[in-house]
Amino acid sequence: MHLRLRRLLLRLGCSRGFTTVTLMGVLFVGGLLVVAAYAAVDPDISLSRDDQDAKQAYAAADAGLQWYLNRLNVDNAFYLKCSDVDPPSPGEVAPIYDREWDGVGDDPRAWRPLPGEKAEYAVELVPAPNAPIPFGETQRRCVENDQYSMIDDQGNLRLRVTGRSRGEYRTVVATLRRFNFIDYVYFTNFETKDPDTYANTAEVEQANNECQVFRSERTSFCDEIQFAPTDDQNGPVHTNDSIIVCGHPLFGRNSSDRIELNGDPPYGPACAGGSPNIQGTLVAPAGVLEMPPSNAELANIVGSDYHYYGRTTLVLNANGTMTVTGRQSLPTASVTTKTLPMPSKGVFYVSNLSCPSGYVLRQTYSTSSGNPSGCGDVIVRGTYATNLTVAADNDVLVNGNLVRGNQEMLLGLIANNFVRVYHPGDFSGSGLRGGPYPCRNSLSTPAVSQIDAAILALQHSFIVDNYYCGNPMGDLTVTGAIAQRYRGPVGTVNSGSIYTGYSKNYNYNDRLRYREPPYFLDPVHAAWHIARQTERVPAIAKR
Questions:
Q1: Are 353 and 309 in contact (CB under 8 A)?
Q2: CB of 532 within 8 A of CB of 175?
Q3: pLDDT band at 367 (very low <50, low <70, confident <90, very high)
Q4: Which residues lie below 8 Å from residue 299, measured CB to CB, with a gap of 6+?
Q5: Which of 394, 399, 422, 493 could make an SS bond with 376 (beta carbons 3.0 to 4.6 A apart)?
Q6: Which 8-state DSSP code applies to residue 522?
Q7: DSSP string, 309-353
Q8: CA nearest 439: which of 470, 464, 463, 467?
């Protein structure tokens, strides 16, 4: 037994060297395989790291854009402070540079790190392209409390935001806009008749006391204006009030058009069986969009050649000129007629000379204006070939068709008081109809059937003169947008049919989703949103 065990141990001892050699060979081959595998994937490891850093850099840029947008929606005037703003949190700096950096020299931007990430962002303010270069400087920059150093003539605010992570840079360029009246084909503050259109001074006073509130708080004295069966609102709609309908008027073209109604209930019937035909997406309650009190700031933008005083007639010519009759530049100037090129700043403004500040009866117009000649009224018609905003201290009166010579062009009409459609009445003789002042149409055919414009009546209404006069005049086609403080009648309805005035054919100009007429006014309180966002390639980094 012992002999056999001894012989076995001797045989095993003779194999010790062979086992070591085999083991070393296996380890050697395994090591070669590990080295080969690492060499094969090493480029991919580097690419994966770069890809991850590039994605983090883009996420940082987007985070910077969202941070700035959030600050804007907390404070609508945040951009007016340029880079002089409070830091996001203690110990940080505000990541805002008041101009665009060209990538030359040391990086002047302030960077804000993202929490828990090896990434950070910097915001550059992109000045408006037509803003003046500040004295003594060589490039445009944001100027504190000067909105037009940042807001271009179409109402856009632009930012350039760069994110970086471990040496990777990504830059996004964003165009921001405020939700605006021209986001809607139809906007009203109050869905009731304007107090200044009541029949006499006593009624005007009562209407001012009882009707300048939303429907649930108005008294039965107030004239509630309905949507007629033939009224078409082909686009998004917003009212701060609620609506009433007769028949089945159309609201919206498809589900992408928001029909934003406020109040409780959002709508009600004005005649038996009345209900709206809502093709858009109903949003109720939708909240309140507040109108600015005045367009006076536009008078500071317009050049002297395009600033007139008192009653002014403006004919827009298809060749890109305008023919103007009125007092130019100075209140003491005499009335002249001139043909001018379209204004380079895109604004034409008419100021008051002397105009009654109290009640002016607005229901019995039979002349081309109806107001004293000292009132800052602009009487406009024609074909426009460039972007233009026409504004007035008092009224804008459309006394002929206003059409685009080019589908891309935009026109704005802004009145502190009324934007009116010319419809003179004949109040004498027999065969009169309508009310409250029986009359007939003075013109055999309507003076106005088409208006291509964004319309804003700040203190009063978009209205047809003598809308209650004479026989029906067919459709009033507006392509653009209408915004008004009070609902302005364009006709009357009897037994569900148009009795006098016009039927509505309002069509939204979708170009207004992204652009606006020059220096069109922003709401007092409205959220900002991203209208356009693109990536800039290459990113903004040191050259």
A1: yes
A2: yes
A3: very low
A4: 307, 349, 351, 391
A5: 394
A6: P
A7: EEEEEEEE-TTSEEEEEEEESSTTSPEEEEEEEPPTTSEEEEE-S
A8: 470
Q: If you search the block for the tokens 């109720």, which residue do you land on?
A: 284
Question: Helix or strand or coil: residue 492?
Answer: strand
Tokens at 483, concatenated: 């915004």
Compute CA distances 540 → 55, 169, 174, 183, 361, whole Å: 16, 7, 14, 33, 61
| 157 within 8 A of 175, measured Cβ to Cβ | yes
Q: Which residues are CB-contacts of 36 (< 8 A; sequence separation ≥ 6)? A: none
Identify each DSSP E strand in 47-156 by its residue range: 96-97, 112-113, 120-126
Distance CA 324, CA 334 (A): 13
Q: Is 251 within 8 Å of 278 (Cβ atoms)?
A: yes
State the CB neighbour count (10 A cutoff) for residue 154.
18
Among 8-22, 95-109, 209-223, 372-386, whose mean pLDDT is lowest? 8-22
- Is residue 198 within 8 A of residue 207, CB to CB? The reply is yes
- CA-wise closest residue to 490 among 181, 226, 111: 226
CA 292 to chain centre: 14
pLDDT at 339: 97
- Beta-sheet pairing, 497-508 with 491-494: antiparallel
Mean pLDDT along residues 213-226? 92
The percentage of residues in the chain with a pLDDT greater than 70, rounded to a whole number, is 89
| Cα–Cα distance measured from residue 280 to residue 272, given in angstroms and rounded to the nearest whole number | 23
DSSP3 helix / strand / coil % (the chain, rounded to 5)? 20, 35, 45
Prior bond of 285 cis (ω within 30°): yes
Q: How far is CA 334 from CA 308, 327, 337, in A?
A: 11, 6, 10
Q: Tell me how far apart the alpha carbons of residues 251 and 231 are, in angstroms, rounded to a whole number.
A: 9
Q: Give the pLDDT band (50/70/90) at residue 26.
A: low
Grouping H, G, I as helix, E, B as strand and the rest as coil, residue 33 is helix
Strand, helix or coil for residue 406 = coil
SS3 of 210, please?
helix
3-class DSSP state for residue 35?
helix
What number of helices (H) and strands (E) belong to the chain? 3, 31
Task: Look at residues 232, 272, 273, 224 and name the one whose alpha carbon lies nearest to residue 249.
Answer: 232
The pTM of this model reads 0.78
Sequence-distant (6+) residues with CB within 8 A of 487 are 188, 190, 191, 192, 193, 194, 225, 461
Burial label for 267, CB within 10 Å (0-12, 13-18, 19+), is buried
State residue 488's pLDDT score.
92
Nearest to 451 by CA among 526, 521, 502: 502
One-letter amino acid of 233: Q
174 within 8 A of 532, measured Cβ to Cβ: yes
Question: Tokens 């021209």 appear where?
Answer: 182
pLDDT in tens, 309-351: 999 999 999 999 999 999 997 777 899 999 999 999 899 999 9
